[in-house]
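Progress against Task 2.4 (sequence-to-structure conversion) is shown through the following example record, which the project officer requested during the mid-term review.
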Amino acid sequence: MRKTAIITGAGRGIGFAVAKRLAEEFNLVLAASSPEERYEERFKTLKETGAEFCYVQADISEQTDRVKCIETAVEQYGRIDILVNNAGVAPKERRDLLDMTEESYDRVMDVNTKGVMFLSQLAARQMTGQSAIDGVKGIIVNVSSMSARVSSINRGEYCVSKAGVSMLTRLYADRLAGDQIYVYEVRPGIIETDMTETVHEKYTRLFENGLCPIARWGKPEDVAEAVGILCSGKLRYTTGQVIDVDGGFQIQRL
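Structure tokens generated for the chain above:
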């Protein structure tokens, strides 16, 4: 039986790299917030590989759109084996912690944390009622950020939202282990995507000055490889783990 994966934020960057990584093994439900036409060229390359997928335009901060993701997967493919919670937003404007607005906080938290919380809930309800395949009913992978534990005082709402994703990983891993559903977190470091375009020069300079042991920008494909390993279903005596994909940034050095 061919398994099914839902990937949020799948239209570009890390999400699209994950889609390419999982396409050989899974039917894909690709969710993103813009009309499908925006991603036409990327999706064309995916089709050319023979990938089986469908697209859902969805804002995961909205309950009706989260339901649409789940219902589409079940209607199209009959089950949900993988949920990759990748969709996320940065603050529209970086502001000092003392100048951060409630509107910015609410927007970032609604997508990055609330969306993950309640899409995972819906997916888990579906997964628990399914038959297991090779001893696994489902796998949830949350793509968070090094900002879950690294302070950035000019985007505090983002840091708080990703720290929340880390705790959600622990909570769902604890709750679902007995149901043969396994939950993991992939924590990217500084990855070359649209989100980091505005700080490209800054971080390039930091890499040159020894910011990370692996002195280069991370690529979306680096993150996708970690996600793919976790989605394989081969790590059945692990749950709640974090994989740092950050060039060794987490190593404390003197």
